[in-house]
Here is the input.
Amino acid sequence: MTAENTAPNAASEELAALLDRARAWRDQDPDPVTSKQLDLAVEAATAGDVDAVAELHRAFDRRIAFGTAGLRGEMGPGPARMNRVLVAQAAAGLASYLVEHADGARPTLVIGYDGRHNSAVFARDTAELAQAAGVDALLLPRALPTPVTAFVLRHLDASAAVMVTASHNPGRDNGYKVYLGGIDAGSQIISPADRLIAAHIDQISRDFTVDQLPRSQAYRVLGEDVIDAYVDRTAQAVAARAPQVDPAGLTFVYTAMHGVGWEVAQRLFARLGLPEPVIVPEQISPDPDFPTTPFPNPEEPGAMDLAFARAREVHADLVIANDPDADRLAVGIPDATSEAGWRRLTGNEVGWLLGELIAAGHTPGEPGAIANSLVSSPLIGHIAEAHGVTHVETLTGFKYVNRVPDLIFGYEEALGYLVDPELVRDKDGVSAAGLFLLLAARLRGEGRTVADALDDIATRYGAAASDQVAIRVADVATIAQATAELRAHPLTEIAGVAVTASDDLAEGIDGLPPADILRYRLADGSRVIVRPSGTEPKLKIYLDVATDDADPARARERNAGRLAALAAWWRERMRLD
Here is the structure.
């Protein structure tokens, strides 16, 4: 056979194998929508439609990896998408893992879900499959915040929990987040549990089609008492960490960003004696299409514009925003220098304020630690030291932050805060919102503002500032190429300032496990960290600067100028699209 004949035959065989995989997936898919999508794609690809063939390759040439973030991705048919087949395999694999590690007792699994497309369906599938596989499945009564699921796991001393959510990702995405009880105490999975669960999932996918997996309707739907318990315990914990204040007169705007935070947040605010917030009506109820903000992440430009407009109307003191699953908190304050008259505090600024509050209230001499991800501002370490509290840096992710011994506060610059590790072992935007509002009420009672409190921190600990460059890409492979290029050609200067030290965390460093992270320290005291996002197709570059200028206004100006120079340099260098 000639080379000319071999190539077409190989291509034909490859297409035939691809079509066989697609048909096999379709035949076990219980979802009529994705099954029909595959029908149409297979029909078009068979007829020679190159676009349909390309789409089938995107859907079937890889599988969403189950790792420390569980599963997360775009919804659609095939193993590279989030769908009922993939979720069923994950649910059955997780149940198999739990039974194997149950030491003879019947394990229990808490299942929560948010308001996204298919979240409730994925949750019910999980409950039916887990119950039939020898696990007592406990389904939350309706769409609720992620921290409620994390709380109920600890509250009921369950073996594990699943939260169906893609958090702040675009509406086309969904995800599957797994926590473990027992020695993990309600934390999100880390290695080796992630690998062991993934092995069970792979085994299930090889041995069974989804229609062969047994199901049971005998799972239990939990009652309102678990939500009551979350609100009661959170109110007690927040009040214990905040000064006694009269919050009357505080005016604040709240947005749920089309997510599930409002019901629980409203109840908590009322329990804390806070005034009824002014809501952003367009964003207050769950809407999986996110019509006013395609990227429902408070960090994204424009995501808080409606909240700021409402705040201007009512002359609010501040804005409180939860992301769609309410595990994150964003805060906005008035700012006369901003075009909108308002600005969103950085995640680090909120972390400094909450960390200072909690550290100052900690009993001297008692064990206590403040932890943050290594991409968060180093300033929190100075705050912890000033109050005699241990400071620990971890890898990015609350699955690491919340495991620090004697933890009293944990945070990540990506708007994640843990104000009471006894309540949940994950970031909690609802409890953090309640605590921040009490802090703002105290400041208001003293005739001061949140901006004044930030100036006080700058005076006591140094004027620091941070920013982030996020480069979104269509092909995640380009991110690996970019970090490989930085490793192959080490930087000696960044934005005109010499690099005095650089660390490659690929092999682990300072007791941290290996990670795809590069860290640079510059001659002017600045710090730059480069890492791929763990949940989105982004390369993230974290910028931290500081100045010893004692004048707050001048310090802000200098830091802003340095951050702008660093950001411009990286945007010019890292052209990945």
The first strand starts at residue 71 and ends at 74.
